[in-house]
Model the fold of this input.
Amino acid sequence: MRYFVKAKLKSGKRDDLLQAIDREELGRGSIAGDEYLHDMAHARQLADHTVCWVEACFCQTPLEEERPYWEEYFELLQIKNAHDLRRCQDLNGTQAWACCDCDCTKRLEAKMKNWGRRFISELRASNQKPDE
Done:
């Protein structure tokens, strides 16, 4: 399944998150592996300073396994299906682990490239300012 995630970076966590990304430690120990780094590389920061990304997850409960890793740095504001569930090949049993290489959210992700700014760029730029 693919989910649209909207979150707010927790106060005082900017430097910790940037360090975890730079050291490739974000999500270490999670079955999701490098997905966290991929998500942050594609995440967008909106005008209201919220951050959004699309994430693949195979848990029964959305982001059940990933949630503790994200909540170390973010307040998760919204997690919702990012695609038409009727077409999800993983969910309907047509193809196990289909979400790994599926392009079902391609249009959404293309639209998101025009939303706000790249979060990682904003994170690095704000690293020059005092932590908010």
Q: What stands out?
A: Helices lie at 14-22, 35-42, 67-71, 106-112, 119-126. The radius of gyration is 15 Å.
